[in-house]
């Protein structure tokens, strides 16, 4: 049954959640503001479609983050990433962070093709900057188990990214750099 | 400096306002009364029977899928697409009048047959645009949403607008191809009697190859669509196939352009040696050649990426090609 949406309460939820929600999305698109804004707006429009009939969830931010994650997966399943030099995407390196838009896009593109749990551990590690100890505490498991899960998920991600990870010869590098003016990814 | 993962204040403010406006708009819409309370048992039973019967004939599929579409949005969209149909009709009428005028001038010996054919092609294109606009309007009326052109768009029961529009696009491309072939014949005649430079015929040949490639690409998109509708491709594979088709089309269309630029460069070099052209003209043709080479390499890289993705996907699923 549809209920009337309480405007003020909804705007309060919006103000409380907009910044953490945006941060969540922005890290996964490497700070591409226009894409992040589109996805956040889309997430909120879905909330307005769903909440009148189901009510505002007990934890709105968790709900919004879940919907945003699904939108990100949908988006990255639709796009083709540009080629990335393996030297720039060193997943084994502890200092590696997919902070540049092209690297974040490639990693998110790969994550959109992994199982939910494997993608989850990698997201927490690479995008949310959590340590294995923090992930273990959240997942109620041991640090060793998280390390194992990370290792397996990383191997799977590397395999998934293989087609787009290759050292480019100078001619192709110029081509790809030329193509990247349109943005880090191309919609099919 | 602001953290780039923080939203701008302008965005936060604007989205907040949009949400407030949207909530107020939705709250102003009449809330449907709980019908089952007001209705008696007989009515409920009749409605249930109606639903069952409707489902049996498949009508409920459409009803269930689109019942939640906003009526106002649907009406606004329908009105917009109806206006587009009207505009396409006006354009078609204008094209018909221009064709009549061109035929009159041709009969009076004032213009060539090619001019008449060009007008006929314009009229056919206007007619095809009207058919596309009409298909768009029909789709909007059924779905309440913007028409979808992707090969992976979910088909509507009993109707496949994506396929219909691709067929219309094919008729446009076929007409354009016939016209260019006629133009080529005329140009070859003029070249043979020295009235035209060979480069004019070369440009038309390149255009014909381009249109041939476009026609073949449309045919392959129709086939990809049929595979998707028959559940032989999933949506991701269908999109990848389209990307492959388009990359191949670009590659095929670029090759004659590259050859043409090479021939122009050779011709220009010979003119410079005879003092009939300046080095600046050569530089201009050389830039065009480099651009064509770059575009071709780009298409090749894109094609190899897409093919790898298709290979991975079909290997993972054990088929689909």
Features:
heterodimer; A: 188 residues; mainly alpha; two-stranded antiparallel sheet; 8 helices; 2 strands; globular; disordered C terminus; B: 321 residues; extended
Give the total of beta strands of chain A.
2
Total strand count of chain B, please? 0
Which band does the percent of strand residues of chain B land in?
under 5%
Bin the helical content of chain B. Answer: over 70%
Shape of chain B, please? extended
User: How far from one another are the termini of chain A?
Assistant: 38 Å
Quaternary:
heterodimer
Computed structural class of chain A: mainly alpha
DSSP strand content of chain A = under 5%
Relative helix content of chain A:
55-70%
Major sheet size, sense and barrel closure of chain B: none
Largest sheet strand order of chain A: 1-2
Q: Give the overall form of chain A.
A: globular
Mean pLDDT of chain A: 83
Q: Count up the helices of chain A.
A: 8
């Amino acid at each position: 049954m549809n209920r009337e949406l309480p405007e003020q309460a909804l705007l309060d939820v919006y103000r409380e959640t907009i910044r953490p929600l945006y941060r969540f999305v922005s890290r996964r698109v490497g700070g591409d503001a226009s894409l992040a804004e589109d996805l956040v707006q889309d997430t909120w429009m879905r909330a307005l479609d769903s909440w009148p009939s189901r009510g505002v969830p007990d934890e709105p931010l968790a709900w919004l983050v879940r919907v945003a994650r699904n939108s990100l997966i949908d988006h990255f399943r639709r796009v083709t990433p540009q080629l990335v030099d393996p030297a720039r995407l060193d997943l084994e390196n502890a200092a590696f962070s997919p902070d540049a838009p092209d690297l974040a896009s490639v990693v998110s593109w790969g994550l959109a093709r992994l199982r939910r749990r494997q993608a989850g551990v990698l997201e927490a590690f690479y995008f949310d900057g959590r340590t294995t100890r923090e992930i273990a505490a959240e997942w109620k498991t041991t640090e060793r188990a998280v390390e194992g899960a990370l290792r397996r998920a990383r191997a799977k991600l590397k395999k998934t990214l293989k087609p787009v990870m290759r050292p480019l010869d100078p001619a192709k590098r110029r081509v790809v750099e030329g193509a990247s003016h349109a943005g880090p990814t191309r919609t099919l | 400096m602001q953290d780039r993962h923080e939203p701008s204040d302008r965005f936060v403010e604007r989205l907040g306002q949009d949400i407030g406006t949207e909530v107020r708009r939705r709250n102003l819409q009449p809330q449907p009364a709980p019908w089952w309370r007001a209705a008696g048992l007989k009515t409920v039973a009749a409605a249930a029977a109606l639903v069952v019967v409707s489902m049996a004939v498949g009508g409920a599929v459409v009803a269930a899928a689109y019942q939640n579409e906003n009526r106002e949005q649907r009406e606004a969209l329908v009105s917009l697409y109806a206006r587009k149909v009207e505009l396409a009709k006006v354009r078609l009428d204008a094209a018909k009048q221009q064709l009549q005028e061109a035929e009159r001038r041709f009969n009076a010996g004032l213009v060539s047959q090619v001019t008449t054919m060009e007008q006929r092609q314009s009229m056919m294109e206007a007619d095809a645009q009207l058919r596309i606009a009409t298909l768009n309007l029909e789709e909007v009326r059924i779905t309440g949403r913007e028409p979808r052109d992707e090969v992976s768009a979910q088909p509507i029961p009993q109707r496949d607008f994506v396929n219909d529009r691709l067929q219309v696009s094919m008729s446009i491309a076929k007409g354009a191809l016939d016209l260019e072939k006629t133009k080529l014949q005329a140009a070859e005649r003029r070249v043979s009697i020295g009235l035209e430079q060979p480069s004019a015929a070369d440009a038309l040949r390149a255009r014909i190859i381009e249109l041939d490639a476009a026609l073949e690409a449309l045919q392959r998109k129709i086939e990809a669509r049929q595979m998707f509708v028959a559940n032989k491709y999933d949506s991701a594979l269908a999109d990848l196939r389209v990307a492959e088709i388009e990359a191949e089309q670009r590659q095929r269309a670029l090759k004659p352009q590259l050859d043409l630029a090479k021939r122009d460069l050779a011709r220009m070099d010979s003119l410079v040696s005879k003092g009939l052209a300046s080095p600046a003209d050569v530089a201009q043709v050389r830039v065009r050649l480099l651009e064509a080479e770059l575009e071709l390499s780009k298409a090749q890289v894109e094609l190899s990426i897409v093919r790898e993705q298709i290979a991975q996907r079909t290997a993972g699923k054990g088929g689909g090609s």
